Amino acid sequence: MSTNRTTVLQDTKVDVKIVLAGLWSSMLFVFAYVDIFGFWRADVINGALAGKVPGAGFGIDQVFLVNTTIYILIPSLMVVVSLVARSRVNRITNIVVSVIYAATVAVSVIGETWTYYVLGSVVEILLLLAIVRLAWTWPRRPAV
Questions:
Q1: Which of 17, 13, 15 minimizes the C-alpha distance to 91?
Q2: Residues of the chain with pLDDT > 90: what percent?
Q3: What is the mean pLDDT of residues 23-37?
Q4: What's the rounded Cα separation, in Å, for the pair 84 and 102?
Q5: CA–CA–CA angle 57, 60, 65 (5° rounding)
Q6: How many Cα atoms are found within 13 Å in the side-chain-facing hemisphere of 74?
Q7: If you average pLDDT over every residue of the chain, what do you get?
Q8: Model confidence at 55: pLDDT above 80
Q9: What is the pLDDT of residue 1?
Q10: Do 128 and 102 form a contact (C-beta atoms < 8 A)?
Q11: What is the spatial distance between Cα 67 and Cα 129, in angstroms, rounded to a whole number?
Q12: Rounded to a whole number, what is the largest CA-CA distance in the chain?
């Protein structure tokens, strides 16, 4: 006897905190790889060897590297904040930090002529705007 059974895959609702952490993680991967790919560029390599950030003209020294580390630590820590912070703090922090970072990425792409860098920056901005939208529309429940 043959039984025809039809099954449908079940979609499960993913908690907003997990989605936010995933978006921050994805943004960091794009950010890192765009920078890593830059080391295939002669201007970046030559700038690094000369101790200068090409285009921006910043000297590569302790202050620059500490500031760069702080710049990348903030979105890195947003992965954890997104998972553990209470909803009100989580929502506000995600909105503020992602808007600031979207602005800094947009400014960094001004004058850039390399397509990979522009593409990566656009994807970073889209991920950051998705964070803003998700945090802005944080699910609500009636107050008890």
A1: 17
A2: 81
A3: 97
A4: 23
A5: 125
A6: 13
A7: 94
A8: no
A9: 60
A10: yes
A11: 24
A12: 78
